[in-house]
Amino acid sequence: MGKNRFTPGVALLAVLAGCAGTGAGREMQGAAAGEILHVPLTATRHNTGRIGSAMLVSHGGDTTVTLQLSNVPSHATRPIHLYTYIHGGRCEAMSERPAYELTDHVLASPLGWPGAIAAYRGPVTLTNVAPVSLGKLRETPHAINVLTAPADGGLSIFCGNIAG
């Protein structure tokens, strides 16, 4: 009794707190600047109460876009299909037609289980590649728009502004 126990959960919280204090969630500094960008995604009225983020990673002339979403609307059919688009403009005023369609992969996976089918309700992830450099995306305002499957109404459920 009286001994301090350092459990793995406490260790994870300590690491996360340390990262938050050092600004690890902000744009990377130095040689890596411009190669990785974190974009918070805001849930739309069709998906209230949910949270999400997109990680954009530059690979030469392409950009890998990985979505991590807390959940999708309960009416979305399972397995979960999500359609991701990059539009010119900002979420508040996007171009009508997307500049880039990230629809090579639409089947979401349970977070932490890459390749598994997201047939349950819970956090999901999805990765696609945009045929444009991250630098070009950042030159002018762009927005990431995440929609449900056409069978589910093709509703916009998350949107995030790529810093211009």
Mean pLDDT: 82
Q: What is Rg? A: 17 Å
The helix tally amounts to 2
Task: Label the CATH architecture.
Answer: Sandwich
Range of strand content: 35-45%
CATH fold naming:
Immunoglobulin-like
In the residues, how many domains can be counted?
1
Number of strand elements: 10
Query: Largest sheet at a glance?
Result: 10 strands, antiparallel
Protein name: Superoxide dismutase family protein
Please render the helix and strand layout as text:
Elements: H1 8-22, E1 36-43, E2 51-59, E3 62-69, E4 82-90, E5 93-94, E6 100-102, E7 109-110, E8 124-130, H2 134-139, E9 142-148, E10 156-162
Antiparallel strand pairs: 1-2, 1-10, 2-3, 3-8, 4-5, 4-6, 4-9, 7-8, 9-10
Features:
single chain; 164 residues; Immunoglobulin-like; 2 helices; disordered N terminus; Superoxide dismutase family protein
Question: Would you kindly provide a written description of the structure presented here, covering whatever features stand out?
Answer:
The protein is globular and about 40 Å long. Helix content is 13%, strand content 38%. The longest helix is centred in the N-terminal third of the chain and has 15 residues. It has one domain: Immunoglobulin-like, CATH 2.60.40. It has two helices and ten strands, in the order αββββββββαββ. Strands 1, 2, 3, 4, 5, 6, 7, 8, 9 and 10 form a ten-stranded antiparallel β-sheet that branches. The chain is mostly beta strands and 164 residues long.
